[in-house]
Amino acid sequence: MVTPDIELQFGFGRRHIYRFVKRCLEKDEFEMIMGYRALIPYKRLKNYHRNSFPMADTAKGNFSGAFNLLIDTYPSLREMIINSYFNRNSKYKVNDPIINIKHLHKKFVNECRCLGIKTNEYPLNTKTLAKKSLERFVKSLSKSHFIDFAKRNGDQAFMIAKNTGIGNKNNPMTIRPLERVEFDGHRIDTSIAIIFKTPEGDEIVEVMNRIWLLAIIDVATRTVLGYHLCLNKEYSSDDVLMCIRNAIIPWNPKKLTIEGLKYSPIANFVSSAIPEASYGIWDEFCYDNAKANLAKIVQNKLVDLIGCSINAGPVAIPIRRPIIERFFRSLEQNGFHRLPSTTGSHPKDPKRKKPEDNAVKYRISAEHLEELTDVLIAEYNGTPHEGNNNLSPLEVFQQRIDRGMTITQLSKERRNEMNFFSLTVTRKVKGHDKEGRRPFVYYEGVKYSNEVLFRSPQLINKSLELLINTDDLRVIKAFLADGSELGNLTAIGKWGLSPHNLRTRKAINKLKNNKMIHFNQYEDPISVYQKYLERESLKNKTSRNKLANLNKDQKSREKRYPTKTIENDTKNIDNLQQSKLEQHKKQNNDEQQVDKRILKKTIIL
Asked: Where do the TM regions start and end (predicted)?
């Protein structure tokens, strides 16, 4: 419509039309064009701006816009208010972490006086010294400083405000099983005890530090693929690898010892319930940037063994991995928070009632927690889930498999236990043919060899590629420079008896170097370390956690690694050395027999 038609039909003159157009082209506080919003009757497009300060004899209540004029005239005053309210690092030192209006107003008045404002000038000429205006200004900061305002209400609110609502959504809906999985660690909200015996034979029950639950969950179906309980104070890369291993290898129910605890018919894991998911591997692995997760061996296994992409999100930002965080919360509410030793979700939680005393009283141990965790997670997989339209995770997983969605499985040649913990290093062969020292390699303070290497002095000072199973250091596999396999090298001495991982080996070597433990070639270092932890467990919680973790790992490795092969390898090396000793002894005995016969004949004669 042209202007004359508008004037004729609506009765607006040309001047009013231009004024309406100008209002529509104004920008709001977010720098967006007002558009037709500007045509709403009596809608204010701009804030009121005052040109001069009210004087002392100004009529009561005529202070509109005076505060805005004040902070515009004195920018340092605005800066002081904002920095003090949000506790920012500046020249204004705030003792209060979260300053209240009373103390902020006091600083505001002092700053006004420092700026040279007289008592007959605004704001010192008002009854409340502009306290109400300061309150309104501070309240308005929540709109212009949303993240800083959230920080005043705690770290949780700050984390959510900082990491949500900005940018485009980059996580499209995931439907195919194992397309994306989430991994995280959660410190369980319960106290547990450890039962051990002192060197004198007395049974001791003491409280440990809270332990960690590591889990991997499928985003598409909400199915927990696997988990691992870390009994140490903090989890490491070894624990992350163990969790990955448990999520891939088919699950087996535990032998339950708690009276009344049992698996229901619906309790299961996908690796056991669904054949297509056995040894299933994922396409994308989401975790945070914690040090244990960023370990090179973890990333290498995810890329080389699993063949997945890594999505490393920020640390302590659970909203980036909402599925697994929701699972941890459900597990706590339905399980651990119901225990008498629960610590609750916060120090003032009413469920928290002497958790450490109850852990000792009822002897709630790590073994009990393992059984309970296994049952709870298996039950979770079989329980209808609101996020799955009230279908259980196992049902959703099976339905999508039936609809033709494929699962990639780990190839059979990669299913060996060692592949999840292997590490490749290069070492030179030591030895000295002139001194009679047979060839061996040195790794983490221990000599390794086998019958073939003992009989190969030509390999001295040559480099070997060693394939290390960091989960069991009793045996390592050696290869020549051209790729030829030299066979399994066994730890010489008592190091080859008890299964132990790289972390335990380093801990023992560190204690030995610091003169805190002592052992010779006839003593088992693992047993010596265990006795040391038993003594230290009387003093501190950390040693109790280490002792419990050592005992747990020992039992686990005895089940997972066959001992006959290792014992045979050890015997072969020992037999080779023993045969020499026996030959030497036989030679000495023969010489002694000859001497005895000669002496006897001499006496008779």
From this structure: none
